[in-house]
Amino acid sequence: MGADKSQHINQTIHNTYLAKFLGPDKAAKLLRKYFLDLAQKIDLLIEYLEDRNMKEIRKIAHQLKGSGQSYGFRHITEVGAALNSCAKREDYLRLEQLIHDLDDYIEEQKKILA
Question: Looking at the domain assignment, is residue 80 inside a domain?
């Protein structure tokens, strides 16, 4: 892991409300769980996209918008908003791209937090 990435995640942990409330170690543990849970949501998003279930994609997108903001990950909030918008338009190709990009982001964050 690069020093820049490690420094970024440590800065993110220390700047979150969670770190101020729980302390950085407990915040890091909670964030690891959060990203594991997000990985499960990716599996669901892929399944729902294959089934063309836009209603369920929009539910998860809404959850991502809120949780990204709560945990201090603006990128997740932005992807959640984009997923919601694409699901409304039934833009399957863009949904697939967004899900793939989010999966890459989640995997990167999991490695940084490991």
Answer: yes
